[in-house]
Amino acid sequence: MAGGGQVEKRVRYKSSVKDPGTPGFLRLTEAMLLFVPNDPKSDSKLKVQTLNIKSQKYTKEGSNKPPWLNLTNKQGKSHIFEFENYSDMHACRDFITKALAKCEEVPKKSAVSTSTEQLSIAELELRFKVLRENSELQRLHKQFVESKVLTEDEFWATRKKLLGQVSTGKSKQQVGLKSMMVSGIKPSTDGRTNRVTFNLTSEIIFQIFAEKPAVRQAFINYVPSKMTEKDFWTKYFRAEYLYSTKNTAVAAAEAAEDEELAVFLKPDEILARETRQKIRRVDPTLDMEADQGDDYSHLMDHGIQRDGTKDVVESQNDQFRRSLLQDLNRHSAVVLEGRSIDVESEDTRVVAEALTRAKQVSKADGETTKDANQDRLERMSRTAEMEDLQAPQNFPLAPLSIKDPRDYFESQQGNVLNEPRGAGALNRNVHEAYGLLKESILEIRTKGLSYPLIKSEVSFEVFSSLTQTISTAKNIIGKNPRESFLDRLPKSTKDEVLHHWTSIQELLRHFWSSYPITTTYLHTKVGKLKDAMSNTYSQLDAMKQSVQSDLRHQVSLLVRPMQQALDAAFQHYETDLQRRTAKSVGGSSSERPNGGV
Amino acid sequence: MASVASKLYSDDVSLLVLLLDTNPFFWSTTSIKFSQFLSHVLAFLNAVLGLNQLNQVVVIATGYSSCDYIYDSSLTPNGNFESSGSGMPALFGSLLEKLEDFAAKDEELSKEEEHEDRIASSLLSGSLSMALCYIQRVFRSGHLHPQPRILCLQGSPDGPEQYVAVMNSIFSAQRLMVPIDSCYIGTQNSAFLQQASYITGGVHHTPKQLDGLFQYLTTIFATDLHSRGFVQLPKPVGVDFRASCFCHKKTIDMGYICSVCLSIFCEHHKKCSTCGSVFGQSKLDDVSSVSNKKRKAPDT
After folding, report:
1. ipTM, interface predicted TM-score of the complex
2. B2-229: which CATH architecture?
């Protein structure tokens, strides 16, 4: 009855539950499901693509119902097959399950192929974004890609890094917690009745669980075995309501009556344990008891205004009270901790359990220190420094010994080996020289300042030479980046120069990366690039001609390296072309390396 | 230095300390006579004093073997600007007198000197130190003081043996925020002066025509510090950063440096002559490579 690729069973086909059914054969293949009625005249022949089957239901063995298999297709229509026995039905069910699994794989594959397409759409968007943000790149893109010098892919191939940077910037940021306090959730009242409504979202639930481990524990314990989730939250907010009324007597009374409610009203035991744990880890030299005296909220007129009433601590029924500071501290601790679990679930229980697990892990981490007390003592002895017990800190030291400071500050004139510039002549002339000097001084004393002090022509010469040195020093390109020659060009010229420079760089990068030419594709690419480059070259010449004469020299200095770079590329192109033509002429045989063009 | 700044006049009152090169060996070789040079300088000084009534000028003679103050305008009584008939302000009479005395004394000292094979350099380090001492005294006295600057009028070549002293003076000036302007009228170029002006933020210039010296002086070096913020002054294209070695006082652009006290040597020593540190055996000695030598090249 059953082949490798198909299963055939005797069934009754029912279009609905009440339909008595048409007897016939059910033939299952991987691709489709075929029902052939026994009566060839019957029109209940059925053909269902496996792909279209959405779900299957079946009756359980041992129940009173006959073995039915109910297949629902994607249009929502159901086909019911009644089998002769359960084993038949199970065989068919397994087959369909397998077939369905296979069918799912296939669409998955196609989904993958479409996703690459989608990915490239995403990448396209990315490219557009990069272009939008970088106008220079946009110009280049326009110039080369739209004029078909480069293809889109070639253009981007050299800029993968740019795209990568942008895409990594999109990485998902971990979302923190809201800083709103849970106790800030105010119920909405409808005004007519005494009913209050609390709106719970999964985020609020998460926050409650994170801030109040006791509530979390209670949830795990009670829901759903003892009460429904709704009852649980009702009770919780009943407790919160009691807090907010600050009527501790009522709270105490209700807690005595209702043990579940008491869980919410009592101080959080788990939290207290955690706090004790934390206190144990505080630096042992810190005197925490001393800080307790700093609390003066018990004094008159001290305290914190909250909800319009002062938070004055009363000693009676203390366990049913929480101070605002406790709430604040706990809340800030949770907010700072951030979202410690990665569960994005609507199911409250899952969240609660995950949180508990996370806590246990961190607690286990904390308790790995095998002997906390020992550790405390060690830390205490480490931090408490006793100077007289410490080893003397003698670092190896070599004092700087300048034996005779005069060695440093004065010259050792005896050592002078320098060529004494005409020392002998000098000696002879000492007297003569001083004589001349004195004579000069005498001369000016008697004759006074020379008149005219300076000739006007000399003055003029000095001025013009000074002006020239100042202006040339200013013009030296690159000496001072702020005073670069580029800034003195008119803006359009400057932009043009800069744009030429970037486009030449782009072209040259593609040009040189195409060598050695191994495919016809590269050959045509190099040809296109060479044309574009010679185009740019002539544009450079034109630009040089068009600038004002006083700037022309400087502009040509700027343009020269560009043209040199282009010349080098042209030369390489020519020699390579010659070499290749010579080769192809000489070597007429098919022995061309790399399958060259 | 905030206290110094608050003591300054609000505007551009200057204290100009002029270091006058009176090295006879230099002046016996120049195209321009010392008397001509002096008349340019005296006219310039007069101009500086005329620029602001509160301006102050101090002249220090830089000789071959000594240096001395030869003029201080604050010591000369005011209102003595009358011409003595010889076409020269009377106040410079005392300057010339002192200069003459100084030259005589300098000659005496140079005769006593034992090392006669010294380069014919002036005692720049000495006059720089004197100028800085004077400025320091000005800083410490009075409620208000003029903005000091130093102008070196130098023609003699650098004395490499003065390298350390000159550099120390330069760094002191830098600390005091006193710019050292330099006008080099000699034939070579002076690395000392270039570095001094570069480090202290002063102006260095080498006039091309000495007969137009007055024009150079008034155009470039008369600019007070306040106005320098608005005036384009000639900038040197590069600075000669070469140093002198401590062992032979040679001017070198590459050498060895003691890692302890930063003394400079032109060749490898086993021991630093300044601080006595013993150097490890350099592996590069055999290879005679220069790769570990620090380069101090002229920055041109």
Report:
1. 0.74
2. 3-Layer(aba) Sandwich (3.40)
